[in-house]
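mind reviewing this fold:
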Amino acid sequence: MADKTAASFQRGPSGLTIAAAGLIAAILLLLLFATYGPFLLISADSQVRIVSGYLVFWVPLIVATVWWARTHPLAWREMVRFRALDLLWGLVVGLLARALASVIEWLAYGGVGAGGGLVMLDAGQPNPVMVAVTVVIAPVILAPVIEELFFRGVLLTSLRAGSTGRGAAAVAIVASAVIFALVHLLQVTSFSAVVAIGASTLVLGLATGILAVTTGRLGGAIVAHIIFNGVVLLPALIG
């Protein structure tokens, strides 16, 4: 992937510029929403606020990803190719990452899943469509696709292209995973949650980053992220 990626960095702003712009915009909007969102959505129910929070964070990442894809078409086409083997790799990596993250979460606060940031089922929610969006569609489908395209696609690839030496790939994997983990800590307040969420998202970021670099594609990373988030929901859905 490195050669094809490097060949595509020929026009427009650098990948790191695009990645930084998208990430900074997403963080600022999320912080502003956390401060002023409750006042703007004072009459909205909790599910509407949750969906609004997702959108506030995701829209800048989507814009940055589209921008990057248009200015780096060769690297983009290479990354979004999908092979049947990506399903197997994604399943294995996702389950292993979830198992390790679950151990970390259990040690931190005696529970599993909160570190993934998932929205749990609310039996009293009157709107089944909003429940489906906040419980399944957003965290299990949209989040893995949007976040992997940006963090393991735009960000990791740009970091890798901007680095030199034999350890460039490893540096890019670790850096993108650390940023991914830190972003998930923006609205965390308790120490135990910081430990659990930070460690579990770091595990996921490292696992999907290694998978993306190894295969040269993002399909396996997206599947792994879906498995990582989705497994947590199974007990709630079955019960």
Summary: The first helix runs from residue 2 to 8. Residues 2-10, 115-123 have pLDDT under 50 and may be disordered. The radius of gyration is 18 Å. The chain has one domain: 2-238.
